[in-house]
Design a protein that fits this description.
about 45 residues, mainly beta, three-stranded antiparallel β-sheet, 1 helix, about 15% helix, globular
Length: about 45
């Protein structure tokens, strides 16, 4: 995820736990907090 994507994600769907950034995502079993890594730019 880019820094811009992190900023655009609504605060209700993101958090920082133990210094690691997480976003709420839909999975096959419902919603889950998924860890994200901030990268400089999106791969094409």
């Amino acid at each position: 995820m880019t820094a811009e994507g992190w900023k655009r994600t609504h605060r209700d769907f993101k958090t920082i736990r133990d210094g690691q950034r997480h976003v709420l995502r839909w999975t096959a079993h419902g919603t889950s907090l998924m860890p994200v890594t901030i990268v400089k730019e999106q791969r094409k």
